[in-house]
Design goal:
This protein is mostly beta strands and 91 residues long. The protein is 11% helix and 35% strand. The structure holds zinc ion. Zn(2+) binds at residues 11, 14, 70, 73.
């Protein structure tokens, strides 16, 4: 799916329609201090390996993770993601 890089939509901070820039959110590195990561380290330490069976296969589509940044107030908000196999930002 192709999507414009800039759209005009409602900004919850300005409470009006403003130009927004769309940016994809990239996955960051897992922090070692986060609860899930600590749990993972604890469970995988010692004898026996992975805590749970690996998920079977991969879904053909993933939900997109986008930020909408208002060009007026420079604040960003999110929207409910939609499913698509590939997202291209253009324009
Ligand atoms: Zn705004």
């Amino acid at each position: 799916m192709k999507m414009p890089r800039r759209i005009r939509t409602h900004c919850p901070f300005c409470n009006s329609h403003e130009e927004h820039e769309i940016e994809k959110v990239r996955k960051g590195k897992a922090s070692e201090m986060k609860w899930g990561q600590r749990q993972f380290r604890r469970v995988t330490s010692g004898y026996r390996g992975y805590p749970r069976p690996l998920p079977v296969g991969d879904k053909p589509t993933k939900k997109v993770d986008l930020r909408y940044r208002c060009t007026e107030c420079n604040k960003s908000h999110t929207r409910e993601g939609f499913r698509t196999s590939r997202l291209e930002l253009e324009g």
